[in-house]
Every structure is written in structure tokens, then in C-alpha cells.
Amino acid sequence: VKKLEEMGIGRPSTYAPTISTIVKREYVVKESREGKDRKYKEIILKNKKIVTNENTEITGVEKNKLFPTNIGVIVNDFLTEYFDDIVNYSFTANVEKEFDDIANGKKKWNNMIEDFYGDFHSKVETAANIDRSEINSSRELGFDPVSGKKIITRLAKFGAIVQLGEVTPEEKPKYGRLKKSQFIDTITLEEALELFKLPREVGMFEEKPMVVAVGRFGPYIRHDDKFYSLGKEDDPMEISDIRSVELIEAKRKADAERLIKSFDANPDIQILNGRWGPYIKAGTKNVKIPKGKEALSLTLEECIDLADKTPEKKSFKKVTKKTTKPIVKVVDKVVEKAISTKKVAKSETVTVKKSVAKKKSPAKKVVKKAEKVAEKKVIAKDKK
Length: 384
Prior knowledge:
It contains eleven helices and 16 strands. The protein is of the alpha+beta class. The protein has five domains: 2-128, Topoisomerase I, domain 2, CATH 1.10.460; 138-195, no CATH class; 200-257, no CATH class; 263-309, no CATH class; 327-383, no CATH class. The strands form five sheets. It has a four-stranded antiparallel sheet with strand order 5-6-7-8, covered by helices on one side. Strands 9-10-11-12 form a four-stranded antiparallel sheet, with helices on one face. The chain has a four-stranded antiparallel sheet with strand order 13-14-15-16. A hairpin with a 6-residue loop joins strand 5 and strand 6. The relative contact order is 0.04.
């Protein structure tokens, strides 16, 4: 924000929306990152003797800072290549100045828009015809030492990945998801090979395997066709079978405390304990329990009946309604504007410009009355 202020970009009211937008679109992520140990040698000349010490320091520690994501880097590269003058820092600063000139009456807004839009529109048309494969180009990292298959890194639908092998009718490639701290431009072959170790089986629980993998929303354990998220401190590469069982049992306990009642005859109907108290979950519909009703005593029939009586939630869409302002209010505003902007001599009167109507309407009486009131006020004011 300090840098934006120094460069004259934006205003205090636009800084917060700008940052929240790039975070929401996942162009950047706000987080803290641990540093890495780095060894270095310290050579000291003391008493005409050279003393060498080997020390260790932690470097790269960051707290609550914004870091670019892989999609953010690609979007930035695309805009810089095809819209270089638009994303230029000086362009935004100059536009801010032009807005001020328009507000102060020094420049006409339509001239400013015309100057900008001509060149901008041609760039948009050019960019619209660009092949996506040109933007999302892959990078070859090398070959797998075991299978000899090629390894590449690229951006997929849900983020940056590494790919082992190519798509063939006989075999599908193996994929691995990049960590938050890894980037398409900098990831190495050794780092990519580590990512292919997932998914991995960590052990058995209740005679069923526990498999650790990384998905769209982070690392998880898959057990008995159910998914259990790993904690922030858990490394999917190192998590043990004991820790995996702890996470599974903790999730089951939390779910059990949340579930008040279920029905074998209709598994889609459940009575759950929510943030605001007990409620009925009927498919995708959340149903309130009437006051005086005990959640545990509700029957399946009662739950279905309450669900049927509860309407589906409508999606909230802004609908622009055409409203007709009352004639009297419109006239009042016109009269007030005439009083405040026109100076009338003692012998002069104020003439309020009226819109010409094709047909006579009762509103004319209101207009004439308002005009007379305005004239009297102005004349009285001038006499003073």
C-alpha cells in the first residue's frame, strides 16, 4: 500500500478492494513461511591469524505476507506481454490524474474514454484469438530414472502439477501437485520426483488401507471411501499410521457429536447440531426445528413434513427495477437548482425550464404552483 501511495496509484478507498480481489481470485496468498537453515563460513583475521568458523543461520522467514501463486504468475506474464501499456504503473497513475481533471471540469470524460478505448479494444480482440496452449506452456524437467518417462510441469484446472509420462490409449500419466512454495518456473527434477510419491499407503485400519494424497483443498487421508483432512503441522510425506488413525478417530468423534439423529429408512434426512442449535438436514435443504419441538423426539414423517413446508432458498440476484419518481419531487429539485444557480435582478423573475409534454396532465398545476413559489422566494431574497 505504501508503494502504491508513492507511485500515485489508487486511493485509500480502493486499496482494500484491490488486495481482496487478487486474494479472492487466488493470484496471491497471504501466509507465513518458515525459513530454511543455511550454512555459511565465517573467516576472521585475529592476532595475525586466520580463524574459520562454520555457522548456521535461518533465512527466508516471512510472516503474514502476500506471495504470488502459480496462476498469479501466469496471469501477470500474460497481461505484461499483451497489455503492457495497461498494466504499466504510470498508466494507472495518469488515469487517476485524468479522473481528477474530469471531476474539476478541465477535461471531458467522453474524450478521455475515446482516447483510451480505441487502442485497448484492438488489444482485447488480439488476445481473444490467442491459443491457450501458448499461454499455459509446459516446462520439461527431465526423465524419470526408473521408468525413463518424461517429466513435465504445467498448470492444470486446479493448480500447478508435475506429470510423469504422456497420455496414451494403453496408459495414463501419473500426476503430482506442486506445494504452495513451489513454482513452475523454478521446480527441479529432484523436487518433482518427491511429489510422485503421493498417493501413498501409510497402513491398515479396521482391515482397510489408509492412503495419503493431496487434493484441490490440501492433503488428506482416504479410508473406507471417506476423506479426512490433515492438520497444518502434518506432512503428507512423513505422516505415520498412528497419526493417521488419530485424525480419523478425531473426525468421527466430531461428526458423532454433530449428529443428533439419523434414519435408516431415509439416510438423506438427518437431525444435526449446528452453530445456532439443532436443525434438520434434508438433502441440500436446511430446515429449522419449530420452538417447543425436541430434536431427538422428531420422527422421520415429521422431518419430511417440515422439509416440504420449507421453501427452497432462492439465489440472490440484483434486479434493477424501473422506478418513476413523483412529479412533485422532480419539480422541487429543479426549482431548488434554479434558486441556487441563478441570480435574478429586482425586476426580473425566475423561469424554470419545463419539459414539453404532448398531452395535458394534472401535473402542470403542480409545476406552475412550484414556479410561482420559486419566483416569490427569489424576489424576496433580492429585496433584502
